[in-house]
Design a protein that fits this description.
The chain is α+β, with helices and mostly antiparallel strands.
Length: about 375
């Protein structure tokens, strides 16, 4: 829960928990603007698409033409949902001798926290944590997630169970480009190296934070990368609703610098359309800048010397990216209860989730 031992009781700065300042409480983007959510989904349910009729119109044969069958091709995907849960509890004794003690009730009611300022604060923090949870699962979930020491990409010490409930969209994207390399626009800045000290008096080339940052900021690099990304993308993507480039903030900032330098503009216009979602435009295509991707990569995919593909983008439509849940609502009900026997205040929520890309051909990935 909240570690109130970090704050000093009676320090004169805080007299009410409702006045507690959030040092870094990010407003996370609204996920529904970027994906299509399906509710009431079960494992084994199908997601079906009609693709096309194929080619028609042959050289005319005159009288008595030969008729061919109509063959409508389709795409079928299958949901495989995995369970997530939030299960936390707290006893009033955890707040004694901390700042949180000023929020406790008196007498027998001291054990009950749900009508206290502490609980108000806890619910606000929990709401933000749940929003970040869905971003983590939907985009970075991986049923085979491993820490770096075990041959994976998760930062040392990170609990892999935070990711293993389902394969997220980045896992889907990388699987698609592994099957068709033409759908990957390579971001060489992600594997940029610099000379570092080796054994003895030697130096070795190594991928580092600094090399990755320097490479993406090289003049002209980002604008060339995005031009190539758009050129590589299947043109049918731009016929879908709201075709967009979703990208990390690091890539957008580099692109903005290039656009300003290349076109001698004062800046590259952008606007906030939702909490944490910034939208711009390049070459007539909408750009959605997702700082949450940068934050999650830094938090969960850090090798200790470099980040795992910190500069990323995908050309897609939100109508081709799907999230499925078995719940009737987009977000499961949060159950709060008090156990008279244990005197614990309990918080519980659970549901199942999965992601799918509708038509694999209609994405282009820069990674």
């Amino acid at each position: 829960m909240i570690d109130f031992s970090k704050f000093t009781v009676g320090n004169g700065a805080l007299s009410d928990l409702r006045e507690l300042l959030f040092l870094t409480l990010y407003q996370n983007p609204v996920i529904d603007t970027l994906v299509t959510t399906k509710t009431g989904v079960k494992t084994g349910d199908k997601l079906d698409f009609v693709s096309d009729l194929g080619d028609v119109g042959l050289h005319a044969s005159g009288c008595n033409p030969t008729y061919s069958n109509i063959n409508i091709s389709g795409i079928e995907k299958e949901w495989t949902l995995g369970p997530w849960q939030i299960a936390n509890h707290i006893c009033y004794t955890e707040l004694e001798n901390t700042l949180g003690e000023i929020a406790l009730n008196g007498g027998t009611d001291i054990t009950y926290l749900e009508d206290t300022p502490y609980w108000d604060l806890l619910m606000k923090l929990l709401q933000q944590a749940i929003i970040e949870m869905f971003w983590r699962i939907i985009f970075f979930g991986d049923t085979t997630a491993k820490n770096i020491a075990d041959g994976g990409i998760l930062t040392a010490g990170v609990n892999k169970m935070l990711f293993t409930m389902c394969d997220g969209l980045w896992k889907r994207f990388t699987s698609i480009v592994a099957s068709n390399s033409k759908q990957q626009t390579v971001v060489t800045a992600n594997v940029a190296t610099e000379k570092v000290a080796g054994e003895g008096n030697t130096t070795v080339d190594k991928v580092t934070y600094n090399a990755q940052k320097t490479a993406i900021r090289q003049e002209g690099y980002a604008i060339k990368l995005i031009d190539t990304l758009l050129s590589d993308a299947d043109s049918r993507i731009f016929d879908l609703p709201e075709p967009s480039i979703y990208m990390t903030s690091s890539l957008f900032k580099a692109l903005r610098s290039d656009v300003v330098a290349h076109y001698t503009k004062a800046t590259m216009p952008w606007e906030q359309v939702a909490a944490g979602v910034h939208v711009s435009e390049y070459d007539g295509v909408r750009i959605v800048v997702l700082d949450i991707w940068d934050r999650l990569i830094k938090k969960f995919e850090d090798t200790g010397t470099a980040l795992n593909n910190p500069h990323r983008a995908v050309v897609c439509s939100p109508k081709n990216l799907f999230v499925g849940t078995d719940d009737k609502e987009r977000v499961a009900t949060l159950r709060v209860s008090f156990n008279e026997e244990t005197q614990y205040n309990n918080i519980f929520s659970t549901a199942k989730i999965d992601t799918l890309v509708g038509e694999d051909a209609l994405i282009q990935v820069a990674i």
